[in-house]
Amino acid sequence: MPHHYPLDAATVWIDVDGNKFIKVKGVRWFTNLDFPQRHEDVILYKRY
């Protein structure tokens, strides 16, 4: 985020390089990156 942006979010932090980060409530990032757990079978407990 830009350096002039105000830090008035619920959760904010600045890393060791001075980069600002904010946590936006209710926002999630989903991805389709390949990782080993993606190929494991899911054990279902109910039939839908």
Descriptive account of the structure:
With 48 residues, the chain is mainly beta. It has one domain (1-48). Helix content is 0%, strand content 17%. The radius of gyration is 18 Å and the shape is elongated.
Looking at the structure, what is the overall shape?
Answer: elongated
Low-confidence stretches: none
Q: What Rg do the Cα atoms give?
A: 18 Å
* C-alpha termini separation: 43 Å
Major sheet size, sense and barrel closure: 2 strands, antiparallel
Structural class: mainly beta
How many individual domains?
A: 1
Tally the helices: what do you get?
0
Notable traits:
48 residues; mainly beta; 2 strands; elongated
Helices and strands in order:
Layout lengths: L10 E4 L5 E4 L25
Short description:
The protein is mostly beta strands.
